[in-house]
Amino acid sequence: MKHVLLISSILIVLGGCSLSADEPPLAEQRSDLFDADSDGVINARDLCDNTPQEAVIDNDGCPTYLLLESNNSLRIQFANDSAIVEPAYREALDKMAGFLKLYPETFLELQGHTSSPGSDDYNQNLSIQRAKAVQAHLIEKGVPIDRLTLIGLGEGDLMLADNTETTQFVNRRVVGRVKGFKGDIKEAWTIFTQREQ
Fold this sequence. Notes:
By secondary structure, the protein is an alpha+beta fold. It has two domains: 34-67, no CATH class; 71-179, CATH 3.30.1330.60. The chain has four helices and six strands. The protein has helices spanning 2-17, 90-102, 120-140, 165-171; strands at residues 55-57, 63-66, 73-77, 107-112, 148-152, 173-179. The chain has a four-stranded mixed sheet with strand order 3-6-4-5. Strands 1-2 form a two-stranded antiparallel sheet. Helix 2 packs across helix 3. The longest helix is centred in the middle third of the chain and has 21 residues, at 120-140. The protein starts with a helix and ends in an 18-residue tail after the last strand.
């Protein structure tokens, strides 16, 4: 009985060893699948070398637009009772002007805001003056006036409601929002889509 049990154990162990699978064959790579600029399009199909990292690309690896989130909105803060754009904001305004020139189908809505101290009429007028100051800088940089919309909101849309010096500063602003930007709409394609020659 012991011999039968021993022989069966040996046969089970040896039988298990013979069931191990052979290594699967490695697929032969027939094409160069390297993507030098890391845009998601292999070099063999890529028509545009060195695509910027923040670009959205088409089927050929060429940029269709840049994802410039910072250029899709603008925020300029103002001193108390002032409609003067501080020099620190000139660079942001210059970038916005460049973005608007690059995408002529877009326009910019400028919303002027104030903090709560002051009369409603005074704050309404001041919010419009702030939006006009930002508009003037963009026009000076070559943005057509018909692509800039002004809205004066006065103190009607406070970001922060408490009445401290810090929250008043946060509320004294012009916010610019890009409208008409169609960059997010892309035609769907797959890796199997054929490029027209």
